[in-house]
Amino acid sequence: MAILKKSIILNQERLNKKFKFLPNLIIKEVKKSVLFVGKKVERDAKISIQTGSRSGKISRRGKSSFVDPSTGRSLAKKRGGALATKLHQASAPGEVPKSDSGDLAKGIFSELELKGLGSKIGTNIEHGTHLEFGTKKMLPRPWLMPAFENNKKDIVKAITGAFRKGIKKGTVRFGKIGGV
Fold first, then answer.
1. Same domain membership, residue 105 and residue 64
2. Which are the contacts of 71, defined by CB distance < 8 A and separation ≥ 6?
């Protein structure tokens, strides 16, 4: 019995030495994975803002020109056109906001957190926060949470896969562990 206990202790020491760097391998893989899924959420948020139909209020914006009221296209002072501005159909409350100037989509970013294993996804455009959460005068038109929710399964799958990949790399790198 004493020999068996001694053997287990030796294998435990060997195991500790071999897997000393395993957490670093796992962390490296998880960080790559988190960066990848963060970029995917960013991309999906941008696409949802730039595409899709809207059912909100139609308004006129931009510089004055002659436009066809039915299509919103500019007319070169053609008969039947009304002196107006560019037509824009806004999103209704609860819908993803529709891109008008493109500033929100351009301002969306994703990056790894400096500490920990997280990814920061957001915008540096102030009205992006107003659209996501709403204001006293405007109901929310969320664009980030729907992109996150649509990618939830992929995020879990990617992080789980990263753990497995890190452990596999560690096993390959450090070889078979005797007695375990």
1. no
2. none
The answer as to whether 13 is a domain residue is: no
Which residue range(s) make up the domain with 136? 26-53+96-174
Report pTM. 0.70
Block means of pLDDT (10 residues each) for the chain, 180 residues, are 40 58 79 92 93 75 60 57 62 83 90 82 91 93 93 92 85 58
Verify that 64 and 127 share a domain, yes or no.
no
Question: Which residues, in sequence order, are CB contacts of 68 under 8 Å at separation 6+?
Answer: 75, 78, 80, 81
Listed residue (176, 149, 180, 163) closest to 31, CA to CA: 163
Q: How many domains does the chain have?
A: 2
